[in-house]
Amino acid sequence: MALQLGDEAPDFEADTTEGRIKFHDWLGDSWAVLFSHPKDFTPVCTTELGYMANAKPEFDKRGVKIIGLSVDATNDHERWAKDIADTQGTAPNYPIIGDADFNVSKLYGMLPGGVSGEASARTPADNQTVRNVFVIGPDKKIKLILIYPMTTGRNFDEVLRVIDSLQLTAKHKVATPVNWKQGDEVIIAGSVSNEEAKQTYPDGWKEPKPYIRIVPQPGEPTEQSLEPAGQSSN
Fold it and tell me: What are phi and psi of 169, to 5 degrees?
């Protein structure tokens, strides 16, 4: 069955470009992003892996580990890393899982269970469904699943924005509205009664409708979250 939000991220052992890992042990008590690729030496994925290397400090500030996956062996990943450095300016500075046996792709529902044979004999189109982003929480539960086509590069600034929301709403009983970013107003969660809300927000809230209660974001926005990854204020 396909993985759903709230499911436990399947555990596995695999070789990576930084050595063999047991996934749950590698996760520890951190947040994590696992993002997958159908094949090494593919153009869109090359840009994505380079961008994530440059954006890694933003994920580090949020306590989020990064791990990639591609349906090839780790020695192919190591050769690919040189091309990524040459074309994107930075080589991957996080582990990339070698999935030449398709084990992880099958565990995460990205390839059918019956797939077999040599990974080197498969084309990117054969593996086109291996284009997922999974955000995993410290409880090992899946918090976000995004699936992209091969022809569309992923927006990892959006992944950062969602992580900011996930981390905020895990700490406070709020929800974030459309296009929310750090520092914007938030919505009091529907599970919170007005009586309980008055204790947390003694100054009240804006209420355009009884089911929409708008308040300032709890706590202070984190500095690193105010700009998309790779940008800085003028």
Answer: -75, -20
- Decide if 171 contacts 186 (C-beta within 8 A): no
Residue with tokens 């919505």: 187
Q: How many angstroms separate the CA atoms of 137 and 65, rounded?
A: 10
Give the span between the Cα atoms of 49 and 35, in whole angstroms: 9
pLDDT category at 222 given cuts 50, 70, 90 is very low
Q: What is the mean pLDDT of the chain?
A: 93
pLDDT score for 94: 98
Q: Which residues contact 30 (CB under 8 A, 6 or more apart)?
A: 63, 64, 65, 138
Residue 232: pLDDT over 70: no
Query: Quick one: pLDDT at residue 219?
Result: 82
* Residues marked as catalytic: 45, 139
Sheet holding 142-147, edge to edge: 19-22, 13-16, 96-98, 64-70, 31-37, 132-136, 142-147
125 SS3 class: helix
